[in-house]
Amino acid sequence: KFRMPTAENLVPIRLDIEVDGQRYKDAFTWNPSDPDSEVVMFARRTVKDLKLAPGFIPQIVQSIQSQLADFRSYEGQDMYAGDKIVPIKLDLRVNHTVIRDQFLWDLNNFESDPEEFSRTLCKDLGIEDPEVGPAIAYAIREQLYEIAIQNVTSARENRISKKGRRGAEHFPPSKAGGAALDLIKLFSFRSSVVRKRKEWGYYKPTLDLLSNEDVDALETKEERSGR
After folding, report:
1. Which of 35, 41, 135, 156 is most buried (CB neighbours < 10 A)?
2. How far apart, in whole angstroms, are the C-alpha atoms of residue 190 and residue 168?
3. Biological process GO annotation list (predicted)?
């Protein structure tokens, strides 16, 4: 049944709200089992702590509740089952730190912990900014959520296909599912799990530290793109 393929079943929430010329952007995870009253309390605390206009409270509440409702709408539904190893890609800028990486994630490991993974990655790369780790964990969870939704769609398509054509055994895989199946073929008994030398660079994390001028230029560009 549908759930995040991680130890903690957390929903990635993304906010981008503008009220009276003020803009609030944030990304975090939320436990879908928490009562809805927690959403209102969170919105009030956030507005108070960040000194935002009171008009942000209903907007924050509505956005979080809407995203939680989307997540809960998938609960109880079947997911496409099978050996799934999918690629996860990172391309993030957090303050002065830019990190790019890609790695494989086992969707059948429901004990996996993106937060622990991100802490280990930051430690190995010597990243000191405390905001980078949570951003990496969030990026992983956001991609896993999208893949989980696609797996629900694949399972639904499979049921429809079997109803329409007796004896049907195959169905069009989703984009994520196709990538996973390609990887399964790649790691079949005919192939080695050791990557070819020419592929090493693709799976090597890259880390860049930006100057203040670089950050200002990027933020100006992002602000113009967001208008």
Report:
1. 135
2. 28
3. chromatin remodeling
